[in-house]
# Entry
Amino acid sequence: MSDKKFVRILIIIAVIGMIITAAHVAYICKAYPNSSIIQYVARELWL
Amino acid sequence: MAVKKWLVILGTILLFAGINLFLYLKITCRLANNFSGSDQLKMIDVGSFLPFEEASDLARCGSSLHFQKEDDLPVLDGAAALVPVYASVIENCYPEGCVTYEGGSFSDDNYYGENFAPDSVMQYQNTVRGFEALVDGSVDLFFTARPSQAQMEYAQQKGVDLEIVPIGTEAFVFIVNASNPVDGLSKAQIRSIYRGEITDWRTVGGVPGKIDTLTRVEGSGSQTMMEYFMENNMLHIRSPLAIFGKSIGYSFRYYVSGMVADKRVKMLAVDGVYPDTENIRNGNYPICTNFYVVYRKDDPNENVGRLVEWLRSEEGQNLIEACGYVGLAE
# Structure
């Protein structure tokens, strides 16, 4: 794999990853204030 | 060299996958409404509490007060947690046919949920919008926890004098996950937690880890009660690190133990007293409050006063108890 191709793939993956993460965080910011506290506590993970 | 490059690519993919998996497990999978995936604002399945429906989960105690169709029927609205109470009042005191729906039948598919017609005696707009409807005059009686300062200021701005009458007793409770080893806290500890002075569960006898202090939207009944409990000295901004911790939240007892009961959640004892009906009734639980009906002093409908009087009578108090609440302390 050439360096140019490697950098291009890396940038594409990083951009897609950032878009998905930003969308995920945006959803959390929108949904969190209206979510049920009771369900939020109930679904807490205890391992 | 090529292997290294592929490892870097794989590592980058795993990095983003890891971040999103962490966010999902810590937050996203816990974001939920109790009854609806489509409407995050719904806090209660009103369809289970419709008057004059056989399958409805309402108290049926009978009543010596019974309005007729031709009477000027008071329009009732209230907070989510009190829907069973005022729907049961309609069931017992109102004539059939006075609860109507836009389109003819009940639906909860709208943005705010329920489709009560404007001429229906039962409305459900929840605390914030319902209180405004009371002040603006489209609702006669509003069932609620303690009205917030902002709500009282709204009424004052509109030049409306309100009568606030207690009709029952309720406990304000703190909740944690059932796996949390902490079973109780003192009032002082709770206040310190919500003021950011205690930040680790270890300090109050739990497993080491951050305390994630959950709050509710401003103007909601439980948030108003919390502000009152905290004497208006409460930290509103959570530490970002708190999402790594285990949560504590608050609500009213009936909401936690009845309407949306979940075995994965437990109520905490406060100052060593568990919030069961007995401890509320005898006044041992330290954070009890009344819930109220609120109405405009200038409401010309004389049936409003009759209904309020009935709610405070033995029959009315029996109905409140039959709904799972605790009546007024003797």
